[in-house]
Amino acid sequence: MSFKKRALPTIAILASSLLVLSGCGSQNNASSAADLDYDKLPLNQFFNEIYSANDYDADKAYETLVKAEEKIASCMQDQGWDYTPNPPKREDFSDDYSSSDDDLSYDSREYAEKHGYGITEVPGGLNDEDIDGAQQVDPNQDYVNSLSDSERDAYYESLQGPSLTEEQMAAIEAGEASWDDYDQGCYGSIRHDEMSQDPIGALQDDPEIKDLLEKIGELANSEYDKTHADYPFHDLDRELSDCLAKADVGLDNLGDQSAQDILWEEYNELAAASDDSGETSSASPEELEAFKKREREVAVAEWDCKEKIGYHKKHYDITFERQTQFVNENKATLNRVTALVNEKNSKSK
Q1: Which residue in 112, 168, 222, 326 has the most C-beta neighbors within 10 A?
Q2: Which of 36, 19, 101 minimizes the C-alpha distance to 306?
Q3: Residue 185: closest CA among 155, 158, 156
Q4: In 3D, which of 91, 148, 152, 95 has the Cα closest to residue 122?
Q5: CA distances for 126 relative to 14, 51, 92, 198, angstroms
Q6: What is the C-alpha separation between 218 and 90, in angstroms, rounded?
Q7: What is the pTM of this model?
Q8: pLDDT single digits (tens) 36-76
Q9: CA gap 231, 216 in Å, rounded
Q10: Beta bridge partners of residue 3, listed in sequence order
């Protein structure tokens, strides 16, 4: 058996790691979160210093992605394929995700009252009936669909590299190899060009720094994935679960899920319920309205529970302690990264 994979831009991986490390993946409480300075988290201080010194922002990151797509197109065309650059929409690529299109903070009770978790309604007027039309269309899809099965396999091999074998996947999972050890096609061919635009990513060929970035990614993953062996918020989650059970919103035990995860599952079951023929059927307007009401009720209940138990302060304190320990254990490498970036900056001036 072989496995398809796609080379993910390391810039995007670093960005998602920082969102989790900063607590953005779990904030739902504006009044508590407003009193917490996430910029003072130890790792955030490190990254903020690096990126502010380089004026590296969403505009530069987006420009990098656009150029990368152009290089992918050139690479694919050299191998005989048609490929139209397909960067994300600029309006969907931002460095400010703190508020919705109607200027309500995602962390506010007002947002929960109006939009719930944003499952059935996208703030700013985009609702279920027009979400499909608003999604970005891949300009290459029609071309890919026109290919035969064998041509399509060859196309994706040129784009992403050959499928990995079970042995190769096992080597990656065991830490004996990395994605970079294998051919990643045209995506892989532009990786170093892309990474050279990122102040830290440009240093990733250094084994010590690469190891540091992998550790940061693992730290972020451990704070997001409730099934991770080092997930640190089990006690806090149980406290939240107990509060929600008393809120009478039909959530007796969250387990390894969040309230939002459970609501997403309920919505997916409602929106794609199968009939006897195996065809999917959409929910009725009445069912959808009932779900929207439940979504808002659960979101508000969770907001109130997090306020009641001081969720965000406890979450912040745990995160701060873990990051402090990480920085202390990796101080020499972190200082070396800062020195190398500063040296590069001084030479470019």
Answers
A1: 112
A2: 36
A3: 158
A4: 91
A5: 29, 33, 14, 34
A6: 29
A7: 0.66
A8: 888 899 999 988 887 775 555 667 778 878 888 999 999 99
A9: 14
A10: 164
